[in-house]
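quick one, two chains, predict together pls
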Amino acid sequence: MTAPAKRPGRRPGSADTRGQILNAARAEFASRGYEKATLRAIARAADVDAALVHHYFGSKEQVFLAALDFPVDPATVVEMAAGDLSRVGERLARYVVALWEAPEARERLLAVVRTVTSNEEMAALVRGFAHPRLVAPLAARIGGPDAEARVEMALAQIIGLAMARYVIRVEPIASLGAEDLVALLGGALQRLLGS
Amino acid sequence: MTAPAKRPGRRPGSADTRGQILNAARAEFASRGYEKATLRAIARAADVDAALVHHYFGSKEQVFLAALDFPVDPATVVEMAAGDLSRVGERLARYVVALWEAPEARERLLAVVRTVTSNEEMAALVRGFAHPRLVAPLAARIGGPDAEARVEMALAQIIGLAMARYVIRVEPIASLGAEDLVALLGGALQRLLGS
């Protein structure tokens, strides 16, 4: 591998190299799925050295999250499901509501919902990533019959609630205080995921 | 009121009169909210006689549903919540899944989700309608503390699940048979709404 400092034969990093890599990554992840996509193919499509992709982003997962501009590391969510399953709903709800209530993270999350809803390439991007990196590991932590389907119901509840509160802004959900929202969402997630 | 057959002074119905009325209706509902919007103002903005709006659509609610191209009559959903609350989740889930599995209704429902997500005018349209015509009457049928918030959690679960199954198409939810889907969604709705 050629380190970026060594000025590889292909184009060195420039102001919009990062953007070119992300465009190439979105196309590669959408067409081949997260599992089959490679940093090498992304680098080739972006006309840069693979080491440069590694230098900018570190791992395939980090390239993916940057391509989606997604403010959450799925590994953190999966970690959160570890431990006492009798409180898993509240832990997840507290984490999710804290993200939503931070305006910058909320905007990025809603932008993902918007693009996924209106853009098949972005939907394919999420489709290929969500199962192996989020649903399957969460289901393994949760256990029990139909764990994957219940995890997806929980994620659907979370996304639907975000749309109700922040996009449609229907009352009374739109004006609930954060603690009341944690209690409401936490109860629903607990019934879906808890032991 | 002047009946359309009598050729009122304003422009009579033409091929795209219906479309003009719906454009005017979307603007009026979005800017004033469902409750304050009037058929008279919609007619004025569309430059047609109010009787013509009545002739084409019947009621304000029907104008609204046509403006949104929404394939569901909320009154039907509210009726469904009447009766045995120990089976309300299954009844609602069966109705919703049957709609989703009909391709034409599904396409129209997803189009609403798409436009609401990406268009603030459409979000405002739904905001002004959803509470008085769907959430409040459903909550009155369901009863109990926090009934409105629980109804909105149920609607959020339904919309989120539609996105997971039909937009993102994440497995295993995307390939579940209709009966398994009714059982999964029905259970979640029952826990949110049931007595």
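The two ends of chain B are 48 Å apart (CA to CA).
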